[in-house]
Structure formats: structure tokens, C-alpha cells
Inverse folding.
């Protein structure tokens, strides 16, 4: 299946044409096609699917040995290490609060290497098509799930009160928003709010807020920036907290993420004015 319509203009200027390194970001999905970076333990808040662009990959989950794969699935917040035969990789990230885990294809509910050769070829095909035709495409008009999974993935049902808090954090992950304030805003006791949030969103409130803040960094990584300013813009109290938190999530220091993303094209809406 080839993209018939098309990628929205970049959220901010990028160096040169899209080329073979790009990131398509939507509020609930990411396709990253680029450098994997040095092997390191990472712990992403998304349901993450790694697909080798060429050759194979190796993955190691907590307490396990390295395993060879073409496609590997990692549940949200599971620490893992990934290596690739070639320097570049494709990674799809699905925000867990938006998908009904029980309704996912069986292989997407796994952890580690999976047998999904048709999916792997589909991802590679779409990645090459986007890389080749990037500027002429309108990804804003495309449905991410249909492009890669044939149809929209079933959405996770959610209590409306928790849904309002989830949407508010996603709209502005940098906001200083405490669980106590959120509980009051939806007329729940603090303990009831924390319990219901974890049940409905699939992760604790603090983990959710931390992940959304780290995820928002993706919109910045391809432009020259003062990291202290980026830390402030993304809601971190100081540069030390920023560096520690980002390294825990992505396995890399912010400066190394920015250094490896200079030629990365970013397609998708910015979460705040540039």
C-alpha cells in the first residue's frame, strides 16, 4: 500500500530535504526513521515497535538475554536495550491511553521479538515512500493506524473525568499540574483520583505526566537550541532534572539526542508556538 494523499509541512524548518531521516509525530502516534544511537537502556512510555530498516536487530528485556529479531515489541515503561545491524531503524510509538490492549493483534500484545514479516515489509515500504515523497505528501490527511495496521486500532475506553485530565496534560505537558489540583478539578478525592487514573490511563499519574513531558522534547530535537531553554520550555525545573529524566527515558543525554538529530526532518503539529 502506497500513500496516495500525503506529509504536512514540517513543524519548523529543517536542514535540507526530508531524506531518509525523519519523524512523523501526531498527538497519539510517532514514526521515527533515523539513527538508533549508542546501545543504552531506555524506558519509553509508549507501546513501542522496532522494525529493522535493513538486516536485523537485537533486543534485551529485563532479566533476559539478547535475542535476534526483525520486529520487536516493547510494552510501555519496560526498560530495554536495542542494537541494529545498520545504524538506522524504524520505531513506531503508540500512546497506551489511546489503544484497547485487549483488542490489539496478538503479536502487538507480546514483549520482545515477534514474527510479523508482512508488517515489517509494510513499515519499510511506507518509510521509504515517505522519505522519497515527503514534501509532496500531506500526512495530516492520513490515518496513521490504517497506513501501518490496515485499520484504526480500537480505542481504550476511559472515564470522562480522567479523559479530561489526560487531554489537558497532552495539550500542555509543560504545565505545573499537580495530582491534587487535578483531583479537585474533577471532584474526586486525591486517593480515588490516583486509583482511577492508573486504572483508566494504564499508568500512574506521575509516570504519565513524566512521559508526556519527555515526549514533547521530540518536537525540538532537530533545531539549534539552548538546552537550558528547552528544559524550561518543556516544563523541567532545572537542567539537571531535565538531563536525568530524559536519559532515563531515552537512554541518551539531551545533548547527544540533539547532536544525532541535526538532519532529522520533523513532520507534525508543534505542541506550542515556536
Amino acid at each position: 500500500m502506497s500513500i496516495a494523499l500525503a506529509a504536512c509541512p514540517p513543524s519548523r524548518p529543517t536542514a535540507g530535504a526530508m531524506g531518509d531521516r525523519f519523524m512523523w509525530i501526531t498527538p497519539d502516534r510517532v514514526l521515527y526513521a533515523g539513527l538508533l544511537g549508542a546501545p543504552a537502556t531506555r524506558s519509553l512510555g509508549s507501546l513501542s515497535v522496532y522494525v529493522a530498516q535493513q538486516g536485523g536487530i537485537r533486543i534485551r528485556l529485563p532479566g533476559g538475554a539478547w535475542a535476534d529479531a526483525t520486529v520487536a515489541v516493547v510494552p510501555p515503561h519496560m526498560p530495554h536495550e536495542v542494537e541494529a545491524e545498520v545504524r538506522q531503524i524504524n520505531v513506531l510509538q503508540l500512546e497506551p491511553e489511546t489503544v484497547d490492549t485487549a483488542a490489539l493483534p496478538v503479536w502487538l500484545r507480546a514483549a520482545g521479538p515477534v514474527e510479523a514479516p508482512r508488517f515489517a515489509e509494510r513499515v519499510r515500504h511506507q518509510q521509504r515512500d515517505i522519505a522519497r515523497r515527503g514534501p509532496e505528501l500531506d500526512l495530516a490527511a492520513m490515518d496513521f493506524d490504517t497506513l501501518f495496521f490496515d485499520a484504526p486500532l480500537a480505542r481504550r475506553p476511559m472515564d470522562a473525568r480522567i479523559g479530561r485530565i489526560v487531554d489537558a496534560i497532552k495539550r500542555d505537558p509543560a504545565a505545573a499540574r499537580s495530582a491534587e489540583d487535578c483531583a479537585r478539578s474533577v471532584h474526586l478525592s486525591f486517593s480515588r483520583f490516583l486509583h482511577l487514573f492508573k486504572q483508566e490511563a494504564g499508568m500512574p499519574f506521575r509516570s504519565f505526566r513524566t512521559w508526556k513531558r519527555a515526549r514533547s522534547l521530540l518536537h525540538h530535537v532537530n533545531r539549534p537550541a539552548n538546552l537550558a531553554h528547552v528544559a524550561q520550555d518543556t516544563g523541567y525545573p532545572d537542567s539537571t532534572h531535565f538531563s536525568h529524566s530524559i536519559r532515563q527515558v531515552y537512554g541518551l543525554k539531551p545533548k547527544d539526542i540533539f547532536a544525532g538529530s541535526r538532519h532529522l526532518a520533523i513532520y507534525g503539529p508543534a505542541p506550542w508556538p515556536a
